[in-house]
Amino acid sequence: xxxxxxxxxxxxxxxxxxxxxxxxxxxxxxxxxxxxxxxxxxxxxxxxxxxxxxxxxxxxxxxxxxxxxxxxxxxxxxxxxxxxxxxxxxxxxxxxxxxxxxxxxxxxxxxxxxxxxxxxxxxxxxxxxxxxxxxxxxxxxxxxxxxxxxxxxxxxxxxxxxxxxxxxxxxxxxxxxxxxxxxxxxxxxxxxxxxxxxxxxxxxxxxxxxxxxxxxxxxxxx
Length: 222
Prior knowledge:
Elements: E1 4-6, E2 18-20, E3 38-39, E4 42-47, H1 49-60, E5 64-67, E6 79-83, E7 86-87, H2 88-98, E8 102-107, E9 110-115, H3 121-127, E10 130-136, H4 142-150, H5 153-162, E11 165-169, E12 183-189, H6 190-200, E13 205-211, E14 217-221
Parallel strand pairs: 1-11, 5-9, 5-13, 11-14
Antiparallel strand pairs: 2-4, 3-7, 4-6, 8-9, 10-12, 13-14
């Protein structure tokens, strides 16, 4: 499987305008009150759901897993938001109201954001694929971690069968996990693996998407 790199000029999805007035909150994850956490006023102009949720995740340390639809059949829309101070739940509901093709659910301490209908069969299969073992050393980058996951034998073999190439995106994907944070997991699905990563490291969200004229590319990034 050939790994390719896409520059910002080619990967147009990166060119959005996000204007947030988020102020990070440094406190530990507490699931019972998770959805009631307060979010400062938010203004978004021309943002796609993955970028909007990615900024929320990064600024507040909220673990979010984002599964996007196939761009050919379910292209990303640009949305505008203008919200007063609100909660995590109301923020997520506002995003879905702007793009009702998606839904969200809090599962195991992670907000999963996915298409409400017409989910891409390959993405669903990959997320349910059982991974025998995966590990990385402290100081690894999200770029390297996500690239390595797509090259695992269990995942790569399914990409070969589907004739889909994985694309590694450099921009916005070079965050390093914290010092003293080695990682090793076994016998779990790809979705569970990705969730463990964002729960245990400084990487706080993942995005899995399929794109290209005929859905011939797949990308896993933060």
